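Q: Got a minute? One more chain.
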Amino acid sequence: MKSRKSLVSIIINCYNGEKYLKDALLSIKAQTYKNWELIFWDNRSTDNSVKILKSLKIKNLKYFLSKKHTSLYAARNLAIQKTKGEYIGFIDVDDLWEKNKLKQQIKLFNDEKTIVVYGNLWLKNEKNNKKKKFINYHVRDGYIYKDLIEKYNVGILTSLINKSLLKKSKVNFDNKYDIIGDYDFFIRLSKKYKFQFIKEPVATYRIHQQNLSFLKKEKQIEEFFHWIKKNKKNLTKEEYLKIMSRIYNLEFINLKFTKNFLNSFFYFVKFIEHIFSLKNIIILLTPSYILKKFMWFI
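A: Always. Here it is, folded:
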């Protein structure tokens, strides 16, 4: 079993994050597990992010200024190279951690095949202050590759990663992706190693209009199509169909929220074998302005 005093490297990638950054940093400082270093990767910010960072006087801070502005996933890879800890965690500037997050997670690295300990999270709507749990169903521990293909649920802000196994796996973030790099990263890790899950939320994901996944829904869908084309030969027929259904569902919901009823209807009919469900029928028939009130977390 690993020592509970092991060093944890916390990576925060920052590009003009002044609006939420202070809260994220304070949630790190509040951790009940104290043996950590903060790798602050400044992706050429032009706002007051660095001033905010300096004002908090974090003792175990390691600040790095990127030579040039890069994609998020390129920045993650570069930041990983600067870590000294046995474990690596990620928090973005608009995320929040529960104070016992690291303390809970360190305890679960008691199996040499466990590479990731992750947990549930809160989804918080910044506009109306509503909050809900992301995962409300049973989640297995262990080798969960097939589970993630069925229903992907790993939030990078909740994850803690065994660095030695990460090196051994030779898996890194694919710089080709802007949106789904986390998905690709954890799917590949889950093929070889065990994951452990904490059922209570260990972090909060803020939902606001600047989230990349909200700004670039079409880009996200495009990247999923690219991913499945690239990985098709390594998937069983069942796995392929499940992922295709996920992509078609994303595209259907995006159409429903951004186009008119006819666009959504024709898409629903065209791909009905992939997206037919009572839930999607309700989505199709419900006016978008009503859906936005009840489906704010999508």
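A: The longest helix spans residues 237-258.
Q: Perfect, thanks.
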